[in-house]
Amino acid sequence: MLDLKKETSGFEHRAQPPSDTPDLGSIFHQYFEIVPAFSSKLKNEVYRVRHQVYCEDLTFEPVRPDGLETDEHDSNALHLLMRSLKTGEFIGCTRIVRPRPADSHYRLPFEKTCATALDRAVIDPEKLPRHRIAEVSRLAVIASYRRRKGEASSPISLPDEDLDPRKSPRFPYIPLGLYLGTTELARRHGIDTLFVLTERRLANHFSKLGVKLQIIGEAVEHRGERVPAVMDVNSIISEMRNMFRSLYRAIASDIERGAP
């Protein structure tokens, strides 16, 4: 997780009075920006970050000779990057995998992994309008920004104790920036429902944002124990805690600026 004291050359978030809610959007834009990856050049930056995290650091995937981690789902996905304004490097990424309207046999990655684990009495992805659903996957943050004990083995982390910006000097701008950026990118492309295959503890953390993430099946083994879950894009935005709204607006402005 980002250590703001180190990243910002002396900035100490704890200096904010405990009763004040800082302007998270302004703070975010001092150090980071969200970059939608629509061009081939930017998509390759996504694949480089993923290769560094998934292939080199975590060895979830084999090392590729070209240094790019890609798969069959990238061609129908929306991609997102986060850049450090201090160094200019891309430090994180995520993607939104969409169905293929012309291919009735295509299934989102989680639909294959959780084929027998989904509780279709709760929600059945196959019965939803396919053009309005998608799956969030391949969230990744480079190793130098995952410094805490226990974070090195996970592509992204969202510690419970850091989610109050009035108390924590290590507020998790990077994972929240990627999550909120994904939400806004989905909204802009007419996606109502987002599925995710996630660790149970991360699913619990979403409630700290005011996000209702509903577990929709049994746990499966997928690089550790994961549970399938679903969230409603419009509800994420409308029920977001007030303290996070300036951060969301800042990220939404980045995405609008980067739209093709």
Tell me briefly what this model is.
The protein is an alpha+beta fold and 260 residues long. Helix content is 30%, strand content 19%. Strand 4 (133-141), helix 5 and strand 5 form a beta-alpha-beta unit.
The CATH superfamily is identified as Gcn5-related N-acetyltransferase (GNAT)
CATH class category: Alpha Beta
Rounded mean pLDDT is: 84
Order of helices and strands: HHEHEEHEHEHEEEHH
According to DSSP, the number of beta strands is 8
Overview of this structure, please?
By secondary structure, this protein is of the alpha+beta class. 30% of the residues lie in helices and 19% in strands. Strands 1, 2, 3, 4, 5, 6, 7 and 8 form an 8-stranded mixed β-sheet that branches. It is globular and about 45 Å long. Mean pLDDT is 84; it is low at 1-19 and 148-152.
